[in-house]
From TrEMBL:
<protein>
    <recommendedName>
        <fullName>PEGA domain-containing protein</fullName>
    </recommendedName>
</protein>
<keyword id="KW-0732">Signal</keyword>
<feature type="signal peptide">
    <location>
        <begin position="1"/>
        <end position="33"/>
    </location>
</feature>
């Protein structure tokens, strides 16, 4: 018969050593897999990151969340890991930066973790997903609208930063607390302050007043041209023209008269001189009419210019009133008749 001897039991220390060796082997395998995918940080970098993480944990327990966030972020930059990123997201939640914390949680969930990654990494991703779902209902939102005439455009800012026009009329997630909104039109500025609580859904409409009426800078209308002045200058010009015409014809008449005196002694002309005599008579009449008419028109023009001094020009009205203009200036009628015996001027001034 074969005798069976019971196996000796291993001591607790031996079992702990075996377990530690097994965990070390798993860690070594994980590190080897990570090195195959990407080059792992050197030992010094990993030691620094581990030290920063330990300090960050202590600061978090002491509720110094801002300092803890800085150290977690630096450690995560040195050795990216879901465990570090999820802890930085928790710091953001404690600081009230809920929108950024939500995005940080989402980054953790989307991190590509190898299948043989440590259990803590996978657990951190699950925790990030759960904590984000609990956080989302707490994030307040603001729906901003503009009303009224906007002119050539309005620039909107939120907490001093430009607010995209595409977000107008859309719910914008914001952190809890006080926020400053400004909308600037070229001629008008609207400012509002709003204090959001966790989970609050707020709608804010900024209403602009009517656009200002822009006064057109028009040059003053030219003064109304006086009728007396206009007719006065016309009379002076026409009179001067007639005087020049009369003078020219007078010279021609004198020349013709000298020739006729030589050809027609005792003012008796032969038949062949009758044409020259008739031309002289016509020239003489034109001379008399030109001189008399020019003198009369010139005198009338000067008279009207003198009368215009008593009627200063006034600004032209938007719509001229013919009746009022006629009442202001008496009618002017001027007539000139010329016959063989001389010239006659008739008129009402």
């Amino acid at each position: 018969m074969m005798s069976h001897h019971p196996r000796p039991r291993r001591s607790r220390a031996h079992r702990c050593a075996a377990l530690s060796a097994a965990l070390f082997s798993c860690a070594a395998l994980t590190l080897s897999a990570g090195d195959a995918a990407a080059q792992a940080p050197d030992f010094s970098t990993r030691m620094t990151a581990r030290k920063l993480a330990d300090e960050a944990l202590k600061l978090f327990d002491q509720k110094d969340y801002a300092a803890a966030l800085d150290k977690f972020d630096i450690a995560n930059q040195l050795t990216p890991a879901p465990t570090l990123a999820v802890r930085s997201a928790r710091c953001l939640v404690q600081l009230g930066r809920l929108v950024e914390a939500s995005e940080r949680y989402l980054d953790v969930v989307r991190m590509k973790v190898p299948a043989n990654a440590p259990f803590q990494h996978k657990k951190a991703q699950v925790e990030a997903l759960d904590e984000r779902e609990q956080l989302l209902p707490k994030i307040p939102s603001l729906l901003l609208n503009l009303d009224g005439p906007l002119g050539k455009g309005v620039e909107v800012s939120l907490d001093g930063k430009p607010f995209p026009a595409a977000l107008l009329g859309q719910k914008q997630p914001l952190d809890p607390g006080k926020h400053e909104i400004a909308a600037v039109r070229k001629d008008y500025t609207l400012r509002r302050s709003i204090d959001l609580r966790e989970g609050q859904q707020e709608t804010l409409t900024l209403k602009f007043p009517p656009l200002p009426v822009v006064a057109r800078s028009l040059e003053p209308p030219p003064p109304e041209r006086s009728t007396y002045r206009t007719l006065g200058w016309v009379g002076v010009g026409a009179g001067g023209g007639l005087l020049l015409l009369g003078a020219a014809n007078g010279v021609a008449a004198l020349i013709q008269r000298g020739a006729l005196l030589d050809d027609c002694p005792e003012q008796r002309c032969l038949p062949e001189q009758h044409g020259a005599a008739d031309l002289y008579d016509v020239t003489r009449v034109i001379t008399s009419a030109g001189l008399i008419g020019g003198a009369v028109l010139g005198a009338a023009g000067v008279t009207l210019l003198v009368l215009d001094l008593d009627h200063p020009a006034s600004p032209a009205p938007p719509a001229p009133d013919a009746a009022r203009d006629a009442a202001r200036h008496p009618p002017l009628r001027l007539g000139v008749s010329v016959d063989w015996g001389g010239a006659t001027v008739r008129g009402i001034f």
